[in-house]
Amino acid sequence: MLSGETAVALEFAGVGASEAWRRALDDGEAGNTLFAGIGPERGFSGYYAADRIGEALVADVRAQPLALRDRFAGDGAPPSFLLQAVVEGRPGYQRGADIHLLRTGQLIARLQDPGVAIRSDRFARVTTIALPQHLLSPRYASAEALAACIGPVDDSLPGRVLFELVAGLPEDAAHQASHLLPVVGGLVAMMLGRKPRAPAPVSELAAQRSAEVMDYLRRNFSNPALDPQTLADDLSISVRYAHKLMRMTGRSFRETLTELRLEAARQAFADRDAPRQTIADIAISVGFNDLSQFNRHFRTAYGMTPRAARRQDEANGYDGPSLARSPS
Fold it and tell me: Given 164, 197, 208, 253, which is the most exposed site by the fewest CB atoms within 10 A?
């Protein structure tokens, strides 16, 4: 796989594979500084390989199912900048309450963050290169610009080239060593140059009304008949203005409503104090009136079936911040 002196390659399969995976990643058996080993107790198989290219770390992870979370960088240690290529599969990328279903060929650019998880209930392969922040900043990008990279990259030319470079590193590490940093640094600089400008400031009144809309949705998301007209009527605003206020949040009415309902479902899965309900009953209780629609939205958001998520949440709890609760 990789050719450096520090290369490791470990395979996990059979009885106890998930425990061996967690031990290898958490206890440092794999020379791993990037990922915490999380995942299912049964039916797991995986492959982890890593190597150093100068100060950069390249990691190739293949698993079924896949479950990764970033490790804590350590007190006083600056986080690494990560470029991750989804080589196979369609894992879900979660950062706080934001969830994206990724596709094969997608590139992720971000700082190392213990609040990030990448999961798939099917086989997926993700290749990562982690560079200490000082290698890129300030020569290629400011620290602020790197911190603004928080997930999937758009399909720009620099992004596509970076994907091909990162995806190919496990097989071509030796040939990349001498010129890796200038190439990656230059492409990252080009990629950041394409990022949109920050949104223009909004008036205090508009910001207040936008917050009122979000609070209304948090209180009423479980109403299956809720639509923009109902929201507008209850808040005494026009439908057009309601959509404008929703755009200020960065999500549409429908996207926000679906996200609130799915978050509430996962909280219900993890609630051990409440009477156990069927998945269909939970879907109805959070506002879905069509189980197939609930299943489709759930898989898109989390990269797994509701049944698989329920097993996971019942065992481990659900630590995603719920949009269904107003922020304190």
Answer: 197
Cα torsion 207, 209, 214, 220 to 10°: value is 180
The angle subtended at Cα 79 by Cα 128 and Cα 93, nearest 5°, is 50
- The pLDDT assigned to 231 comes to 95
The verdict on domain 204-316 having CATH code 1.10.10.60 is yes
Q: DSSP letter for 218, please.
A: H
**8 Å CB contact between 61 and 47:** yes
pLDDT of 251 reads 79
What are the helix (H) ranges across 10-154? 17-26, 133-136, 143-147
Please, where are the H alpha helices in the chain? 17-26, 133-136, 143-147, 157-176, 180-193, 204-220, 228-235, 239-248, 253-270, 279-285, 291-302, 306-316
In 3D space, the residue among 68, 114, 58 whose CA is nearest the CA of residue 89 turns out to be: 68
pTM: 0.57
Residue extents of the structural domains in the chain: 8-193, 204-316
- CA distances in angstroms from 252 to 40, 154, 229, 255, listed in the order given: 34, 19, 14, 5
Instruction: Confirm or reject CATH 2.60.120.10 for domain 8-193, answering yes or no.
Output: yes
User: What does the alpha-carbon distance between residue 8 and residue 30 come to, in Å, rounded to a whole number?
Assistant: 6
